[in-house]
Amino acid sequence: MKNQNYPLYEVEQLNSFKELINFVAEKHGDNPAFTFERNGGVKSVSYRQFKSDVASLGTAFYKMGLSGKAAVIGENSYEWIATYFAVTNSGNVIVPLDKELPIADLKYIIDNSGAEMLVYSDSFSDLAAYLQENGSNVKYYVNKNQIPELIKQGETAIKNGNTAIANLEVDNKAMSTILYTSGTTGMAKGVMLTPYAIMRDTVAAANLARTKGSHLLVLPLHHSFGFTGCCVFPLLVGGEIVINSGLKNILSDLEKFKPYNMFLVPLFIEKFYKRIWDAAKKKGKDGTLRKLIGISNGMLKVGIDARRVLFKSVLKAFGGNLEIIVSGGAPVDNKYVQGLRDFGILAINGYGITECSPVVAVNRNNYYRADSAGQVVPACEVKILDPNETGHGEICVKGDIVMLGYYNNEQATKDAFDGEWFKTGDIGYMDDDGFLFITGRKKNLIILGNGKNVYPEELEFNILNNIPYVSEVVVYADGSAIVAEVFLDTENDPDCASRLYNDVIALNKKLASYQNINRTIVRDTEFPKTTTKKIKRQYKNGTTTNA
Is 28 within a domain? Predict the structure, then answer.
């Protein structure tokens, strides 16, 4: 199909988690909803069984006394997912906890949210003990290993006539989830979301982008994109969700389970792409691979797609079936997107923010633009606030997918909105075809003395595109100078630091004069990062060179 727009994909219009679970249980019945490794073997749970487990676990929590908020922490697992839906479908509120946060930060979130239950994996037994020893308000502690027994107890209670939870009508526009954002600066805030917002967003994303077959769940479920993209979306479209057993096992899980789809952040896409070429170079076949890409792209121009045949050996390293990777969480360099497409893996980039459930825009399977975040999902509207002469301004969103506000933080909520419009803090623009482009963060914007605006992320993108040995970079202003602080790949290119000066000079010639990088700082270590692997914008721990 040509790169042009086409009608939306048809999707069942579901408005709550209960509707979702009831619908998929009826439609997909005994088909596997979840597959995961357990006790040395592989276990699957059907859609029908999942519905039963959620109702039974919710009933067990009800019998324990849960009537409020429950926090959940641990590695991705079936029990984590069952807990989420059991809590929200019983009219309670789930508080997913970021498992990479320090224990004191976790206690702050639990206390701030008012969670009265903690569901945790063995890895976080120390957190449970810490809360008990340090005056937490948590009343009920549930180890993940207790979940199967609780499901049995709830099932028995339902059979004996306790249908208080199984038949409960839940307000789908009431708060069901509090997600604490990690942000690159500042304290975490609790984003209040509803089942209606999350489901409307999921349906709208499925209207634009389509997947088929199984999904490998890799991203952490406590993040909005991980839950909506890797769990709710596959359930909606009836795909089998294979729960990855750990980041170190991604490649082995790809080979073992042979999934068709993955939702990832750009870091994984870059690693996949580089893995392909590193393997080809080691075998001395990189030249042959480039020739095959040229032949394949020529065939595509005349309507012949032979990629899955020509690159069968490349695709085999990813299980052989991988067709689609949806990327979110940060911009992704188009060379990686196009690079994977060259091999027959459709890489789809999107844009979202936790406060919007989170997907705001996504490229379509057969309608996309290089370096774009895609088309705005049909469940919301987007406007560019106070655009400058080039059309760049703050991206604002309104519609069903937008949060209720920040929990217990009226001032932050007030500051985040302009009337009905949520101000994302991201800078971007829309092209004439309705594609959204992200160019930076408002708080990082550099305003020069002559009134010109410099978007650090654009310069960072240019540096990474044009200076391949720069692994990480942050651009910022120091007085009137534009500074690029970099971490170099000296492991693969030991002498690269000696070339940095001339390469930056060459790059400056391609940029507008007001964008020129005046100074570089070479870091000794990688940049510190948030738990979502975004660079914290902290600087100056290396050596400085003038450019």
Answer: yes
Task: Check: CB of residue 84 under 8 Å from CB of residue 227.
Answer: yes
Residue 185 lies in a domain: no
Same domain, yes or no: 232 and 93: no
Tokens of 239: 């795909």
Domain that holds residue 236: 1-15+197-442
Q: What is the arithmetic mean of pLDDT over 453-458?
A: 86
Q: For the segment 462-500, what is each residue's pLDDT rounded down to a tens digit?
A: 887 789 899 999 999 888 889 999 999 998 899 999 999
Q: Please say whether the dihedral angle defined by the alpha carbons of residues 119, 122, 127 and 133, taken in this order, is positive or negative.
A: positive
Do 415 and 318 reside in the same domain of the chain?
A: yes
- Residue 179 in any domain: the answer is no
- Position 343 scores a pLDDT of 97
Give the predicted TM-score (pTM) of the model.
Answer: 0.89
Asked whether residue 10 falls in the same domain as residue 46, the answer is no
Separation of alpha carbons 197 and 178, rounded Å: 13
CB 97 within 8 A of CB 71: yes
- Write a three-state SS string for 403-452: CCEECCCHHHHHHHEECCEEEEEEEEEECCCCEEEEEEEHHHCEECCCCC
DSSP assignments along 364-377, one per residue: BTTB--TT--EEEP
pLDDT tens string 226-249: 999 999 999 999 999 999 988 899
Q: Of 407, 442, 477, which one is at a domain's C-terminal end?
A: 442
Q: Which helix (H) or strand (E) holds 47?
A: helix 47-64
- Same-domain pairing of 432 and 474: no
Positive or negative torsion for Cα 21, 24, 28, 34: negative
Amino acid at 161: G
CATH label of the domain that carries residue 132: 3.40.50.980
Q: Tokens representing 431? A: 């092209």
The number of distinct structural domains making up the chain is 3
The whole-number pLDDT of residue 133 equals 95
- In single-letter form, the type of residue at position 326 comes to V
Whether residue 171 contacts residue 80, with contact meaning beta carbons closer than 8 Å, is answered with no
Mark whether 278 and 395 lie in a shared domain. Answer: yes
HEC profile for 103-169? HHHHHHHHHHHCCCEEEECHHHHHHHHHHHHCCCCCCEEEEHHHHHHHHHHHHHHHHCCCCCCCCCC
CB 203 within 8 A of CB 37: no
